[in-house]
């Protein structure tokens, strides 16, 4: 795919499919499946960086397990705003982030099966952040068909569903997953973390590290069993 088609910055969801290149629409329609994946906390292991930055800012020790809310409100009432202003305002901090164990192998397998991969991130759609995010994925050989920077995730997922029999969504943000997991034709997977353990919904799929198995291996197991093998 032409590089200029690989990133969409805060698109209007109503125009999303018009912005997709024809080759991507065809790929999604032929597979009958699209894989929509968040970045931070799902591909990029950024949470530890956020906690470390907040610890320095607040002048007190913090551990990842101290944060039990996705918005960091249990750490500091203005924590999320502080992070947005400082960490998201420093794109270079995201270029060398470690990758969640198992993510590269899982996404490469999904890509090899000719399933479209959409990285849907709520990171700010600024030039520096876009370049850092794309460079991070390319440096680590993480495949994707298109990358979308937007906070309007539910609306975007609903639009993608119009051209795909099934959409698999993987995200660690509980508000995203709980907003889409009951949509027809959407398989929503909550990527387990200390800050979303309190989310309980009947029928909600959650993946966690289980013994020697990574959460990404569990995602792959679900995809193979329910989608690729035609038993969804």
TrEMBL record:
InterPro entries from the UniProt entry: 5'(3')-deoxyribonucleotidase, HAD-like_sf, HAD_sf
Organism superkingdom: Bacteria
Spell out the SUPFAM superfamilies in the cross-references: HAD-like
- What residues sit in the active site? 38 (nucleophile), 40 (proton donor)
Q: Name one GO biological process term.
A: deoxyribonucleotide catabolic process
Listed GO MF terms: 5'-nucleotidase activity
The entry's family comment says:
Belongs to the 5'(3')-deoxyribonucleotidase family.
**The protein, known as:** Uncharacterized protein
